[in-house]
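Now read this:
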Amino acid sequence: MTQEENPTDLEQKTGGEKEDELNERIRPPRGVYLLPNLFTTSALFAGFYSIIAAINGDFENAAIAIFVAMAFDTLDGRVARMANAQSAFGAEYDSLSDVIAFGLAPALVAFLWALNDLGKVGWVCSFIYVAGTALRLARFNTQLEFADKRFFIGLASPAAAALVASIVWTFSAAELDIDPADLSIPFAAIVAFAGIMMVSNFRFYSFKVVNNQGRIPFVYLLAVVFVFSVVALDPAKTLLTSSIIYAFHGPIYEAWRKLFKKKAE
């Protein structure tokens, strides 16, 4: 309502004029923010490419594409916050992209790499992973406003995708004389485990409370350089190790909290 208008002015207008004006006021703004949605589209494309590469038997690049999708997914949220370009459309689009890049793509890569030799058990484990991703994202979106930003409730879908993709990447890049079918049973258990962890109530540290604008001790910068150096030496094995540690730290942390609470009582 403009400064010149008041409720009595609106009452004096005809029914059609009232309806048009009310529709104009509640109509959502047209257009979307380009930059953050461009990163989201890039993550979606990387997930789609991962599926195509897996179908063609190029499992190493299929796994790498999932990590590329993770990089773009991290950037789209940060860019949106820095540019004050957050929107409901962007949030929904990001969730749909995550279902493809971190749900469907890792599940298909895992199935085509090793789980197809298990028959129904293989695709059931893959479906558990996909369903876990969708349910985890739906729960995350509904709890976003009141959730503790220090922790994720359930394993985050990019972390679950990293666990699955890093295994495929490590064994594909190593060129070992190992048939993926020989790893199908333990790998199926890991894929199902990742899906279940996403819908669990275990708390996983989110790293969202790190102050990236204030000053930090110089030793922290050296630690970051060291981490990048280690990753550069052997990306597949380093990412596999870090993914395993992160995926299991939630249950271990919860067990430690309960044990500490019993001792305190």
